[in-house]
TrEMBL record:
It is found in: Cell membrane. Residues 19-92 form the Cation-transporting P-type ATPase N-terminal domain. This is Cation-transporting P-type ATPase. The chain crosses the membrane at residues 72-89, 95-112, 255-279, 285-309, 674-694, 706-728, 749-773, 793-812, 833-853, 865-885. It is a multi-pass membrane protein. GO terms for cellular component: plasma membrane. It catalyses: ATP + H2O = ADP + phosphate + H(+). It comes from Saccharopolyspora hirsuta. Belongs to the cation transport ATPase (P-type) (TC 3.A.3) family. Type IIA subfamily. Residues 1-22 are annotated as: Disordered. Its main location: membrane. Signal peptide: none annotated.
Amino acid sequence: MAHSHHVRPGGAGLAPAAVDPRESTTRLLRDLRTAVEGLTAREAQRRFEVHGPNALPHHAARQWPAALLRQCAHPLALLLWVAAALAWIAGTHELAWAIVAVIVLNAALAFWQEEQAEQAVEALGEYLPQHSRVRRDGLVQSVLAAELVPGDVLLLGEGDRVPADARLLSGALEVDASALTGESSPVQRAADFPDVARRAVDSPVLVFSGTVCTAGVAEAVVYATGRHTELGRIAALSARVRLAQSPLERQVRRVAWLIAAVATGVAAAFLPLGVFAGLTWAQAFLFAIGLLVANVPEGLLPTITLALAAGVRGMAQRGALVKRLSAVETLGSTAVICTDKTGTLTRNVMRVVEARDGRGAEAAPREEFATALARCTTADERTGAGDPMELALLAFARSCGVALHTGQRDAQRARLFRFDPHLKRMTTVDRVGSGLVVHVKGAPEEVLARCSTILPATGGAQPVTAQAHARAVEVVGEMADRGLRVLAVARRDVAEEPPDRGAAESGLCLLGLVGLIDPPRPEVAAAVAACHSAGVRVHVVTGDNGRTAAAIAHQVGIGAHRVVEGPELDALPEAELDELLTSGQEIVFSRAAPESKLRIADALHHCGRVVAMTGDGVNDAPALRRADLGVAMGASGTDVAREAATVVLTDDNFATIVSGIEEGRRVYDNVRKFILYIFAHAVPEVLPFLLFALSGGAVPLPLTVLQILAIDLGTETLPALALGRERAEPGLMNRSPRRRAESVVSRRLLLRAWGIMGVVSGVLVLLGFFAVLLAAGWRPGADVVGDPVLHEAYRQATTVTFLGIVFCQIGTAMASRTQRAALRDVGVTSNKLLLGGYAFELGFAAAIVYAPALQAVFGTAPPPAWALALMVPFPVLVWAADELYRARGRRRSARADRSHPLGGTRAFGDEMP
Ligand SMILES: Nc1ncnc2c1ncn2[C@@H]1O[C@H](COP(=O)(O)OP(=O)(O)OP(=O)(O)O)[C@@H](O)[C@H]1O
């Protein structure tokens, strides 16, 4: 996660002494007052005080006046500016000012909301601080990357992110410098390369903060940290990161524009209609502007941004760090999860539970066997660093009486052929006594294929016969079926160091097999069950043996209907792979090469399924980038994988992905909820204008323009925000995943907003309006301006329309809280923010109706008590109408479920029932 460290303001530190990182290493070390053994911890502490943390400065605080101005100038606001200008020209300065107030208040709200969103994304870095290995006090230690100082000696290896600018002292690396140079192919860097590059960034002996090591190991001395690094210099130049727009935001933006266009059309149409109804052109003009302002959904977009940001926060609390706002919504539509096995489904806490001799018989391991286990490792038992499987092997070797000190093991090692996920084995060449011994461990089929002899529990080595080979394969399969991870171990005496890997790994003697257990994580079974009820398929993609993987998959409830071995997958034509992946089966891809993940991610994407793909190694990065959602392991994964992924799991746990999906679905649902709420007011606001126009003026205008603005501004905002915080509704994880192409504004949503809640509200408020007028003796066509009694009644009547809409919106907000469930199932008072929103809404409305100064501006008059009483049931009626509609939908889907005896999950599609 680039740019994610934080610097306390003022902690910028001093510029480091000017050193030339490309001078000879001896001089550089002297200039930096350090040595190849690194600094002492105390000296590092002192330098930290001087140089400050190794972190990029926080994005300079936003220039708020400029940002606020930008909000006032976005396209929807521009539309409102035009309306304000027209109102001014028409001579209605009051309205013009009111519109300007709308713009400014909305801009302020949007500004605040975006600020919140950016903070949410920036804060993620704090959840997952980067660590680096350095030499301090003569020991290799893991320290926070933010605490590195010039002079520190770094240990870099495959998968590490380079934490600061450094000069290589020894070793060689392959580095992906694309973050810095834009060059996508990796470059070679080595301590002993001649340095003839012109630019520092091209120097073969330097590595830079922000780049990542894709292969090799090296030691390097840090010469620049924090903002003095190349990356720091670039970051200081570039502007702050903009929040990229998510598909949801794009959709909503389109909808907002559509509505703005319709509003403009309606307003234009109102002009002649208004004049026909008896208004002057100036008056008609004014009302047209009012209609326009009422219907431009200016607050919608920032509210969505805020909802997504709240989602990012919520997910982070549950252990899923989402690096882009849009990933919140993608997670919610996940249809397929492709998961690793080790560490994600299982705990990655291993223990050897079984050992077999070369013939496959259960026996205590011979000394050669235990020695091989101890020597063919790179993990460090003292610090617990390294592969948990190797730690288990070391512990086992010790229990067999072979206790080899880590330092001794490494000192006696002549050669190391690292574990390679393609070859699935690892080899060391060790000096044992006076001779050289090759030790190999790895996947049984790989090791077995390179053995020419086997060593029984007692006696001498025997040649591998077809029968012995078959027996070994059978034993491996039988162990794997019990969910054990099986490794084969082999050795060979050599006279001199083998020239290459191929030579080392041939003519081996099979020492035996070890079986390790790695129990499933306890939460995973429930999470898999949740996936199944949510219509999400789970495939396992693992480097392990198919039968081991299938056994583990079964233990946690993953179907594992088919096991596809690596070579079988490679031979599978695209069309068949697509068919396999869409067949509804759950598949275990075993002995899979990292490239297989890429192929599977591509195929699923091609079939239109949103796929979450987990990974942890350097080789997984391309698949993580290509999948709709790359999910990296925060605890055990490499920096490279974390950088490539969109989601990082702080606990590496499969169950956390599932909580992320739930959170994503909730956020998307909530966006729908406040769209529904905001849309619903359109009908009761537009209906009065239509009535006025269509009656040719016989019915006076039931609602004034400023009253509409008061609703938009005063009563709408807070309840809409509160809906964005609604909790998950029951049944959220019982629906099928949302289809990729599905629009956030569905027909069902419009039906509820306009057809049901809108119409009921419209009828109710007009009822109130006419009741007050008629009670005062009004008849159609009567003059409500000239007659003082009727005029007072008219003011009261428009006030009732205004209050009626406010009351109806209370019911609408209640009904909008669920999409399908009954409100009683989520609890009427469970959204405390919404209750606060109501209090604000009512207080605001009361001020407009009862405060004399506001009465004059908004043309209101306190209505008679009986009219108020008449409105009390409004919220309940609106809400009840929608409640009935939802109940009908639930009955229908229950019937549909019954008529499909196979059950299964119902389409989530928010289409009409
Ligand atoms: N350190 C190692 N030394 C030797 N062989 C290993 C080592 N680690 C793994 N193997 C072998 O290589 C196989 C593949 O390992 P890899 O790490 O690619 O996948 P995995 O950890 O089994 O599964 P997953 O992809 O689910 O994490 C293992 O099944 C094992 O046989």
